[in-house]
Every structure is written in C-alpha cells, then in structure tokens.
Amino acid sequence: MKLLFLFLDGIGLGKDDPEINPFSRAQTPVLNGLIGGKPLTSLAAPFEDERTTLLALDASVGVKGPPQSATGQAMLLTGINIPAELGYHYGPKPNPDVAKYLDSATLFSKTVAAGKKTALLNAYPPRYFDGIDSGRRLYSAIPLALTNAGMPLLTHDDYFNGRALSADFTGEGWREFLGFPDAPLFDPYSAGVKLGEIASGYDFSLFEYWASDYAGHKQDMNWAVRQLEIIDGVLKGLLETWHDQDGLILLTSDHGNMENLSTRRHTPAQVPLLLFGDINIRREFQKDIRDLTGIAPAISKILELNQSI
Ligand SMILES: [Zn+2]
Questions:
Q1: 52-84 pLDDT, tens per residue?
Q2: Ligand 1 centre distance from Cα of residue 40 (Å)
C-alpha cells in the first residue's frame, strides 16, 4: 500500500459565501464533482462515494487560540496532541519545544525505519539551502522532520530532471522569482500527472503547498481563486494517473485561513480531510480519526509502520 499526502497549508471548511470564501467563487469542477457537486465548504462534509471521502476535522484540539502551522504540522506528522502538551499553538516555524517532537517518531522517520521509501516531493531552490546554511532561514516543520529522518530535501537538479515538483505546481515561480528562465513549466493537469508518476515510486510521499496560507494572510481573493483553479487542474491529472490499486491519496491542512478572507488571521474552522482510493481502505483508514491527531496513526497503520517508535 502506498500513500500520497497532499498538504495544503491554511485551508478550512468555511461558509459557502462568495464574498469571503474563494472556495465558493473559484471554478473547481473537478473538486466539486468529487464531493457531490458542492464547493469545498462546511456544507459539503461529511461525504462518501465510490471514489472520495470528505470529513471535517477539528484543528484546535482543545487548546485555545487560533491553530498555528508548526504545532499543526507536527501533529499531522506524529499524531501527538502537541498543543495540549505544550499548552499553546505555535508557528509558523517550530520553536525548540515543537522541534523536539520532530526529532524522531515522525511519519518520515518511521517509514525509513521500516525500510520503505519516502520523500518530500517539493523541489527546493539553491537560495533556500543558502538560507538554511547561513542560519537566516529556519526549517518549517515538514522539512525539519524529513531531514531529521536522514532524508535529503529535493533540489533544483531534481526539478529539472523530473524527480520533484515546483511548490507552485506549474514552475512559474522558478522562472519569475527564482532566476531560472529555462525551468520546466507545467500546466496544472500535467503537474498532476507528474505528481502521480513521482509519488507512485514511494511508499509514503508528501507534497507541501503553502500558497493557500499565504493567500489567506494577504486576503487576496483573485490570487486565492487562481490558486484553487490550479489545484483543480492538478487533481484532474493526479486522479487520472493514480488508480485505486496504487494506494490512497490524502489531502488535508493544519488550520483554517484562506476560506475566510474577511480576516488575515488563521481561523478556528474545521479542516477538510479528503481521501481518494478504494472504499474499503478509506473506511478502515478513517474509522479512528476524530481530529488532526488521528491522521498519523492511521497512516502508520496502513503503511504497516511501527506504531511505538
Ligand atoms: Zn499562516
């Protein structure tokens, strides 16, 4: 069994209100078609059919204040209620208290310990590594967990050779902002096909999309709508490439933000958990999931990873 984890930062299930919610405004026929013809808002969940499951999950996990990225992502990777243990939500980058949880016993380290193949499918540009090496930039939770598991981040070379994806899916950022005018470009559909092809080579792979959280902080409706329409094209390519017998695709988030552009802050909204794959496997996968802490144990179980390390 293989599992592809699509992580979209800062997307909650909001009101079906096109004034504030880009999910209500964007043209996303693929996504809406997968969840019963509705936009991805609180009205759409829960949902199940022969291809898709949608659940609404609490991201606040009983701790006051808006949920944040470092603790949220660390919970997704460990299954531990880190905000409850620390007494606060924290982010965007892990502080030393959060980072301790990412030293070991993450999904990445457990996959490595089980002798299985894992990767973070994002390609990181040279300036990212320069920032890390010089101390100007801190790892966010997901790349920190991966590198702590002894696995390398994928690079410029991996992107140019088709082994990794651009963080914006299309590669426009590599051309426009990162100084690589000859970087490969993908339309959203082709990026989805590529994602499926690359992910099929790993037991557990994760792709991190952060532009959704950024759009929420900027309160930029047009940009948010554009991001969602790109994601819709990616889903079409991905789901045409990845078949149920290949395993499970999981899409979730760490907290709400982009679904309510009336505020630039994170929201307490429930977050979507979308599952694509065989219905019996989806039902088994979701049965013990009550909030964000349930996802990592469910992944460990389906990938037959050691639950105790
Ligand atoms: Zn944020």
A1: 999 999 999 999 999 999 999 999 999 999 999
A2: 20
